[in-house]
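Internal ticket #5521
Category: modeling
Description: The requester needs a full-assembly model to guide mutagenesis choices. All entity lines are attached below as received. Residue total reported by intake: 228.
Assigned to: D.W.
Attached entities:
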Amino acid sequence: MIRCAIVTTPIDPAALLAEVTTPATGATTLFVGTVRDVNEGRAVTGIEYSAYTAMALEEMERIAHEASSQFDGVRVAVEHRVGLLVLQEISVAIAVAHARRAPAIDAGRFIIEELKRRVPVWKQEQYVDGERAWVDPTAISVPVSVA
Amino acid sequence: MTQLQVLLFASYADAFGSGTVTVTVPEPATSADVVTALRSLPGGSVLPAAPVLAVDRRYTRGVVPVHAGQEIALIPPVAGG
């Protein structure tokens, strides 16, 4: 079982857990990514997520299928939210269930790492001072101030 | 010469001022022709040395042929999660 979605409304992690769990699954992992208040030393008030929705969905599904062939028998539900999110709101949730814990844990890790590397989603951070900036994980980090 | 539509997102859409641009490229065209044409447009200086291109919602590697009717997109550094 694999289900991936790009959503515009709040993610319900409990619903994802319920979706992947069956009487045959003895281990379930849940990864939840939330909006953090500081990035690269700057105070963040919110993040506007945007996506190339059609490709993001297909890429998430490709990753979930790769996880499924690498860790046979995993049940996977992935949701990534887009739009303006405030602090502590959930941007991504990944639920993985399996009969045994090792595949559930390893597949969950595989999916979030590949998602961050490959899925065409972008975030524009909004700072306390009103400025906005696109997050570029490939850019060299330059400290805002040196203590 | 032929015209191709290219989808742009995030920082690239901001730089070019649009989520879709039309480029004129030689025929038959390659992904390298698309990037060269984009560089000559206002905002084109934002592109890195080797921008990532997707065709029909799949990443491409190296230089690939492209033609009208395909969904061609330029993918800025992704930052999901």
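Resolution: model delivered.
Comment from assignee: The CA atoms of residues 101 and 131 of chain A lie 44 Å apart.
Ticket closed.
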